[in-house]
Design a protein that fits this description.
With 40 residues, this protein is an alpha+beta fold. The protein has one domain (5-39). The protein is 18% helix and 38% strand. The chain is built from one helix and three strands. The chain has one helix at residues 5-11, and strands at residues 16-21, 24-29, 37-39. A three-stranded antiparallel β-sheet has the order 1-2-3, covered by helices on one side. The protein starts with a helix and ends with a strand. It comes from Pseudoclavibacter caeni. InterPro entries: Ribosomal_bL36, Ribosomal_bL36_sp, Ribosomal_L36_bact. GO terms for molecular function: structural constituent of ribosome. This is Large ribosomal subunit protein bL36. Keywords: Ribonucleoprotein, Ribosomal protein.
Length: 40
């Protein structure tokens, strides 16, 4: 699965990690929940 450009910019934010669950790609950010993202 290609990761969308918007998620790539989110993963560079401090405190974020990329997680894959049930075929979806998520960016989880505990420090700033505004930067959560989802693809798929």
């Amino acid at each position: 699965m290609k990761v969308r450009a918007s998620l790539k910019s989110l993963k560079n934010k401090p405190g974020s990690k990329i997680v894959r669950r049930r075929g979806h790609t998520y960016v989880i950010n505990k420090k700033n929940p505004r930067w959560n993202g989802r693809q798929g």
